[in-house]
Write a structure and sequence with these properties.
There is one protein chain. This protein has 19 helices and 14 strands. By secondary structure, the chain is of the alpha/beta class. The chain folds into two domains: 346 residues, ABC transporter type 1, transmembrane domain (ABC transporter transmembrane region fold, Up-down Bundle), CATH 1.20.1560; 237 residues, Rossmann fold.
Length: 594
């Protein structure tokens, strides 16, 4: 599972080197490789400098020692320049690759309303925002670091092993001559260290992933409390939320401690290796140096080469913890991508052919044809609905709780693909949806009011008139203020602002789902009267249950439960008695308004 998820992540993420971004990707890759080789060249030059300097030091040759000091200063400048270039190239590659991955994930998440549909289906890809932001960042940054680390380790191992083989020479013990004995000693030392790290680190991957999942859950619950702060405060849920957050963090802490325990075990090896790694080559070369078979410069060059080879061969062991982080992050990103894949497979090609078809009407009417709406698990909610809505007609959809009023609205909006049948709408018609809880983007109140056309030029008088009619004249002076309007405005103010929004941009079709649930009766009367009077040509489909709505619609569609199957639809117009009640309601509203 783990390797499979990582492989799928690699196949997906390597799309950065294809398509429109391939040129930039290859240029950045070439830059990284250039500076990587430059750094390796500088390291080889420093290794040769060690022999040059220490041989001169052993001979007490001051002229050569002075020259060596000048050379090392020049090498320091070259090495620093190569390191700076590598940092720039590596971090730019990480930033651009992450940008590509973020765009790819957000595009897939947002397209065809998947971001909503994933909240309906049961999936292991919880907290998609954390997977896209945090796990996406870690998976790319660590992958670039690992790729460069492995390549650098291979190049360094090959380069310095050859130096170690030549400089270290052979060693004779008990009549047996071992050529390149330092190379074999380095390989054995590194293998033992790596195996020990692997045995300890193999269980760390799952521990790190479990900790990452707990971190994401804790962030999600904190965000939920922030978003629902007013409701929680009003009902006095502080203690309950505090207890829940404490339980979630305690769960996170237990997983964190498991990671700490295994990291501590691995630190035993790391700590010992930090002490032994520089000493081992000196101990191995000391007999030859004392016997006069090796100069001090050769001993220091061999020791430096041994250290470089040991670091290269131990690279995986030294980076086991970060590898665990990468496996965990790449798996979480892959889980999100896999969840979207499964969702798309369940919906059929383009998310339409095997579900509810949203198509173009042959005329200006809206058609519901053989419409069955199901839950994600296949349970039938609406069975064989048939309806025709004429242009400019105002239709009220009623039904008991659970009969699927809101789900019908979601299906018409293209949010709910599960089921069968057709929903046909005029091809070039502009459609606006007014949910129970309106959405307001970050920005000024003017931008929130004009959303989703915030840059469109609208006459100031038209904006002021819409706000005044909707009882929001107190907000006119704040049109250009930036604030969190979804939290600052009351539920009723938000719903009235949604009515003002459609009055400014009258759509051809307006689909509403309980848009007056937070309004008092008089405010509801005024909003619905404005809808009828100022949007006479707009086709309205309104799911609602509050009394008094009948007066503002031409007919009703009722969703009723049947003994078997899902809710069926019945349609009826207004009777003469109902029209009398409607006129009385209107007169009452006008009298209260006056």
């Amino acid at each position: 599972m783990q390797s499979g998820a990582s492989e799928r992540f690699l196949r997906f993420s390597l799309g950065f080197w294809r398509g429109d971004t391939r040129r930039r990707a290859w240029v950045l890759t070439a830059g990284v490789l250039f500076f990587l080789f430059a750094n390796l060249g500088a390291a080889l030059a420093v290794n040769s400098w060690n022999k040059f300097f220490f041989d001169a030091l052993e001979k007490k040759d001051m002229q050569t020692v002075t020259l060596a000091i000048g050379l090392v200063l020049a090498l320091a400048v070259v090495s620093a320049a190569a390191s700076v270039g590598l940092v720039h190239a590596r971090m730019r590659l990480q930033a651009r690759w992450r940008q590509w991955l973020t765009r790819a994930l957000t595009t897939r998440w947002l397209q065809n309303r998947h971001f909503y549909q994933l909240t309906v289906v049961n999936t292991e890809a919880d907290n998609p925002e954390a997977r896209i932001a945090e796990d996406g960042r870690l998976s790319i940054e660590l992958l670039v670091d690992f790729s460069l680390g492995v390549l650098n380790a291979l190049l360094a191992a090959v380069s310095f092993i050859s130096i170690l083989w030549v400089v270290g020479g052979a060693f004779t013990i008990a009549g047996y001559t071992i050529p390149g004995y330092m190379v074999f000693a380095c390989v054995i030392y590194s293998t033992v260290n790596t195996l020990a790290m692997y045995l300890l680190g193999s269980r760390l991957v799952n521990r790190v992933e479990q900790k990452a999942a707990a971190e994401a859950q804790f962030r999600y619950e904190l965000t939920r409390v922030k978003d629902n702060a007013e409701n929680i405060a009003l009902i006095g849920g502080d203690d309950d939320e505090r207890q829940r957050l404490d339980e979630t963090y305690s769960h996170l802490l237990r997983r964190w401690i498991r990671v700490i325990i295994w990291q501590g075990r691995m630190t035993w090896l790391n700590g010992a290796n930090l002490v032994l790694a520089p000493v081992v080559p000196l101990l191995l070369g000391a007999p030859k140096y004392l016997a006069g078979d090796m100069t001090l410069g050769s001993l220091m060059q061999a020791a430096t080469a041994f250290a470089q080879v040991q670091v290269a061969l131990n690279w995986l062991a030294d980076n086991a913890i970060r590898l665990a982080d990468w496996f965990a992050s790449s798996r979480r990103v892959t889980q999100l991508s896999d969840a979207i894949d499964r969702l798309e497979e369940s919906l059929g090609p383009l998310g339409q052919s095997e579900g509810i078809v949203i198509g173009a009407s042959p005329d200006d009417n809206i058609y519901l044809r053989n419409l069955d709406i199901e839950q994600y698990d296949g349970k039938l909610m609406i069975d064989d609905a048939e309806a025709i809505v004429a242009p400019g007609e105002k239709v009220l959809v009623r039904g008991d709780s659970g009969t699927g009023k809101s789900t019908l609205i979601r299906a018409m909006a293209g949010l709910w693909p599960w089921g069968s049948g057709e929903i046909l709408k005029p091809e070039n018609a502009t459609i606006a949806f007014m949910p129970q809880r309106p959405y307001f983007p970050l920005g000024t109140l003017r931008q929130a009011l004009l959303y989703p056309f915030p840059e469109q030029k609208v006459e100031e008088e038209k904006i002021r008139e819409a706000l005044t009619r909707c009882g929001l004249e107190h907000l006119i002076a704040r049109l250009d203020e930036t604030d969190s309007w979804s939290q600052l405005l009351s539920g009723g103010e938000q719903q009235r602002l949604a009515f003002a929004r459609v009055m400014i941009h009258p759509p051809d079709i307006l689909i509403m789902d309980e848009p007056t649930s937070s309004l008092d009766e008089l405010s509801q009367f005024r909003m619905m009267e404005y809808m009828r009077d100022f949007l006479p040509k707009t086709t309205v489909i309104h799911a609602g249950h509050r009394p008094g709505l009948e007066a503002f619609h031409d007919r009703e569609i009722k969703l009723v439960r049947k003994q078997r199957g899902g809710p069926a639809t019945t349609q009826e117009g207004h009777s003469s008695a109902r029209r009398v009640i409607a006129r009385m309601w209107q007169r009452l509203g006008r009298r209260q308004a006056g």
